[in-house]
Specification:
The complex is a heterodimer of chains A (86) and B (471). Chain A is mainly β and 86 residues long. Helix content of chain A is 0%, strand content 48%. Chain A starts with 5 loop residues before the first strand and ends with a strand. Chain B has an eight-stranded antiparallel sheet with strand order 13-12-9-10-11-14-19-18, sandwiched between helices. In chain B, strands 3-2-1-4-5 form a five-stranded parallel sheet. Chain B has a three-stranded antiparallel sheet with strand order 7-6-8. Chain B is globular and about 65 Å long. Classes of the chains: A mainly beta (86), B alpha+beta (471). At the A-B interface, strand 4 and strand 5 of A face strand 16 and strand 21 of B.
Chain lengths: 86, 471
């Protein structure tokens, strides 16, 4: 039995505004195809003027980012797809 | 008088301004984001106008969109409320240049009092005390020692290149100064490559006391002071009016200094001058001025009987102040409890949600300023303040007892708020004895862990709180 990589969806833990970048003039935290660790920050969510770092929570490779920078997101909304190593 | 007022704000303060406008026979139009179309302020106003998407930068902070909305609805005045563009001089100027009235002071006054260094110099010019400090950065030890002697002890040595609390040392007395300065400069050199420091008097148990003023450009009156020492991360949580720390002589001196400073700049509208008060020495020091209506204005209204928002609109319409200083009396005691959609048990993390059940406290001496209603789904984009419970009674002890009674009646299901924290705060002997300073609330929170609320719907905890924005 070969071990298959599995896809994992990173969801918004609460509603807010999703930021792909630490600041408007800076590069995105992560790009599709990038290798990440569990504690790699993939974006920020702003809820009621507080900013929270969102981490990958598992090691793997970012397959896609599902929402635009500065998008309004709902709790549970998929933000990124992560392919976790077997 | 203003005929049609555009309100460039949201939440409880937008509703507060709608109410004042209606009472004066002014039509109100609430400029709102897409997320606030169903708000109570919009439904209570004569009209609403959408100014952009949910994110504040695209709506409530979008001056061009607000000005366009004002022109399209044929408004002759704009009220900025608090926060957002309320202290933005460029916005105030643009409103006036578009031929409308800005409900607040001139852009030049906003600029002057909004800049900390300029406001400090203005206070000095008006003969109002400021926190004693070095006029600029200093690196030469002998000069620093001479300045320290003039400033007095205890004092702070602050690295000129530091910030956010880094590179600050407290020096208790003159004997310690040389040694502490040497250490501070060595640290600053190592950390920042810059050994210049600022010196500033350290006020160990400072209270935050602020004076409410109203001006018409010629004359300024004060409406006494508010005690706002209960703060967490510089956010006020509980305020009272008047301050329990002042006797009549101190009150007179403080309020008179505020009038002097506001008259010095020809102030127009409602404004607040913030001071640090040293309860040990009885000294007070001006720190900054807010050139707008403040969140906690209702407690001043409660003890003076003067409607500050209506007076702002009258003065903005070109009327003179309607009362002399001697006609303004302070009667009884008022407190404000800020109900924020935050969970004290989770480090005050925001807890947005939908109001499932809502019962306001009522009865004698209670005022609620809130835009909540049952079924309201709170958008996650803005400030967490959802209600202000304002309580008045004829003395402080009675007001605190009434505040506890109000909290008992208050029911809000759907998300966690700071209401339970206020209940515990009111039971705290030090608060009842008014033995508070600006560090009190954070010390109290550290000593008394907040119990986890049982009624709230849990959300998964964030990985980490990265940063917090200023008020």
């Amino acid at each position: 039995m070969s071990q298959q990589p599995s896809q994992h969806t990173i969801q918004a833990p609460f509603p807010g505004v999703f930021y792909r970048r630490p600041a408007p003039d800076q590069a995105p935290f992560v790009e599709p195809g990038q290798r990440v660790e569990a504690d790699t920050v993939i974006g920020l969510i702003e809820v009621m003027k507080q900013f929270c770092e969102l981490k990958a929570e598992a090691a793997g490779t970012i397959v896609s980012i599902e929402v635009e920078d500065e998008a309004v997101v709902e709790a549970g909304q998929p933000l990124a797809i992560l392919e976790t190593a077997p | 008088m203003i005929k049609r007022l555009l309100i460039a704000n949201r939440g409880e303060i937008a509703l507060r301004i709608v109410r004042a406008a209606r009472e004066l026979g002014i039509e109100s139009v609430v400029a709102h984001s897409e997320a606030d179309a169903d708000s109570l302020a919009v439904s209570q106003a004569d009209a609403g106008v959408c100014i952009g998407p949910a994110q504040a930068t695209k709506s409530y902070l979008n001056a061009a969109a607000i000005l366009q909305a004002a022109r399209e609805c044929d408004a002759d005045a704009v009220h900025p409320g608090y926060g957002f563009l309320s202290e933005n001089a460029a916005f105030a100027r643009a409103v006036v240049e578009a031929g409308m009235v800005f409900v607040g002071p001139d852009a030049a006054i906003i600029e002057r009092m909004g800049d900390k260094a300029m406001a400090r110099q203005t206070a000095v010019d008006a003969g109002v005390p400021v926190v004693p400090g070095s006029p600029g950065a200093v690196s030469e030890p002998a000069r620093a020692a001479a300045m320290a002697a003039e400033i007095g002890f205890p004092l702070l040595i602050k690295a000129a290149a530091g910030g956010g609390g880094r590179g600050i040392r407290v020096v208790e007395n003159a004997d310690e100064f040389d040694r502490q300065l040497q250490a501070a400069q060595a640290e600053a050199r190592a950390a920042f490559g810059d050994d210049r420091v600022y010196l500033e008097r350290f006020i160990e148990h400072a209270r935050h006391i602020e004076v409410q003023v109203l001006g018409d450009g010629e004359r300024v009156v004060h409406l006494f002071e508010r005690e706002c020492s209960l703060q967490r991360r510089r956010q006020k949580l509980f305020e009272e009016c008047p301050s329990p720390a002042l006797d009549e002589a101190a009150r007179e001196a403080l309020c008179h200094s505020a009038v002097r400073l506001a008259e010095h700049v020809g102030y127009v509208g409602a404004g607040t001058l913030e001071y640090l008060f040293d309860s040990h020495s009885g000294e007070f020091f001006f720190i900054e001025m807010n050139t707008r209506i403040q969140v906690e204005h209702p407690i001043t209204e409660a003890v003076t009987g003067i409607d500050l928002v209506r007076e702002m609109l009258r003065v903005a319409s070109g009327e003179r102040l309607r009362f002399a200083q001697s006609q303004i009396q302070c009667r009884g005691w008022a407190v404000e409890m800020r109900i924020n959609a935050e969970d004290p048990a989770r480090d005050f993390f925001p807890s947005p949600g939908t109001v499932a059940r809502l019962i306001w406290p009522t009865g004698p001496g209670i005022r609620i300023d809130s835009a909540l209603f049952e079924g309201y789904r709170m958008p996650p984009f803005y400030d967490s303040l959802v209600a202000k419970l304002v309580v008045w009674d004829d003395n402080r002890a009675a007001a605190l007892a009434r505040a506890a009674r109000a909290l008992n009646e208050f029911v809000l299901d759907g998300f966690t708020t700071t209401a339970a924290l206020h209940q515990r705060l009111l039971e705290t002997p030090a608060l009842r004895a008014a033995e508070i300073d600006i560090g009190f609330l954070e010390r109290w929170l550290a000593d008394a862990p907040q119990p986890v609320a049982s009624s709230s719907a849990p959300v998964s905890a964030p990985a980490s709180a990265a940063q917090e924005t200023a008020p």
